[in-house]
Amino acid sequence: MANIKQLIEANKNSYARLRNPGSDMLDELKNYNVVKYAMDERSDHGGLAYYNPEDKTLIVAHRGSETRRDWLVTDVQIAVGVKETLADMAAMRFTDSVIEKLDRNGHDIDLIVQTGHSKGGRESQMCVKKLVETTDIECIGMTFNAARIHGKQKNKDIDYPSVNLRVTGGSAFSTDVVSSFGQQLGHNVDVNLPNVKNFIQAHKLSTFDSMIETYPELSNMDIKDVMREIKKGVQLASIEQGYPGQQQNNSPQDVKSLINHLTGTPEIRTATPGTVTKGQIVAHTQTQVVQQLGENSKFFMLHDKATLSRIPDIGTNVQIKHNKNSSLKAGVEHLAPQQFPKKMTR
Q1: In CATH, which superfamily holds the domain spanning 4-232?
Q2: End-to-end Cα spacing for the chain
Q3: What is the pTM of this model?
Q4: Are 171 and 317 in contact (CB under 8 A)?
Q5: Are strands 276-284 and 317-321 parallel, antiparallel or unpaired?
Q6: d(Cα 234, Cα 33) in Å, to the nearest integer?
Q7: Under 8 Å between Cβ of 202 and 168
Q8: Burial 71-93 (b: 16+ CB within 10 A, else e)
Q9: Pairing between β-strand 46-52 and β-strand 57-62 as defined by DSSP bridges
């Protein structure tokens, strides 16, 4: 099986290979054999492929921006909305060449996992799209702060098996910018890491080391299991705590378990007509939004989704104002940084 920890390592190796092209010792990945590394001369696309002969899983990692051509040509093309770059095409050719090499050597492929960081994440998604639409081999994608794809690339009738993990420190100023604009091929899921202080730190591949520390169980789970729970709408914190499918229920015990990792002794309350709260949205259940009332506070407020004018995203800091007339929807307003509550006041 492949897991998030291995995918992060594979992506790191794709960068390391560019800096040290002659050192295949940098390619080691537990339980996997290196199939191929390639650097495309026309586009500077870099790809590194691994194969597990036991479960017949192929991992294809596409390197993010690291060369002048990446920054001055490919990244600019992505920014202005070019539908398909030379690097995208090179990524698809690289994937095809790896599949053909394994086939020639008599190795079956049961699962292809496409992965990449930043620009490489976009290339990964382009490969997932092509494989899903043209082959019978099962293919999934897990990317890290991926650059957007062109909207017209997506077939609206296909639910592409692709997830992008976007780092956020809990505010617009500490959220990855690259994966925040445009469309992702599949789900765009926030990884909430409170130690991230700005968008530059948020974008770095090395920041995902903090994800491994924050979500150790999740990072070692079979990637297919993680993606299945994400597709259901289960939050990463819930998956980490071992509650797959938890959003299908909504008991106080479940909610307490969901947020217990944030503070040892949470005090949970339910919003009533006339309640006004400020704080960060830390979790969703199927019917409720969980708000932490102040930085590092032990107090949490549950808001029924049906009572809200809109559903705020996890990681956002908002004021939620419930009307005294319970027939009216509660207002949800984003807070500027200086408005973030430091602690709950009675």
Answers
A1: Alpha/Beta hydrolase fold, catalytic domain (3.40.50.1820)
A2: 50
A3: 0.70
A4: yes
A5: antiparallel
A6: 33
A7: yes
A8: eebbbeebeeeeeebbbbbbbbb
A9: antiparallel
The ranges of the chain annotated as CATH 3.40.50.1820 are 4-232
Alpha-carbon span 193 to 183, nearest angstrom: 23
Neighbours of 12 (CB within 10 A): 19
The amino acid sitting at 294 is: G
Structure-token pair, residue 42: 């026309």
Query: Domain 250-339: which topology?
Result: OB fold (Dihydrolipoamide Acetyltransferase, E2P) (2.40.50)
pLDDT tens, the chain, 346 aa long: 899 999 999 999 999 988 876 666 667 899 999 999 999 999 999 999 999 999 999 999 999 998 888 988 998 888 888 999 999 999 999 999 999 999 999 999 999 999 999 999 999 999 999 999 999 999 999 999 999 998 778 888 898 999 999 999 988 789 999 999 888 999 999 999 999 999 999 999 999 999 999 999 999 999 999 998 888 888 898 888 774 443 444 445 555 555 655 555 678 889 999 999 999 888 777 788 889 898 778 888 999 988 998 888 777 789 999 999 988 999 998 886 545 454 444 3
* Amino acid occupying residue 48: L
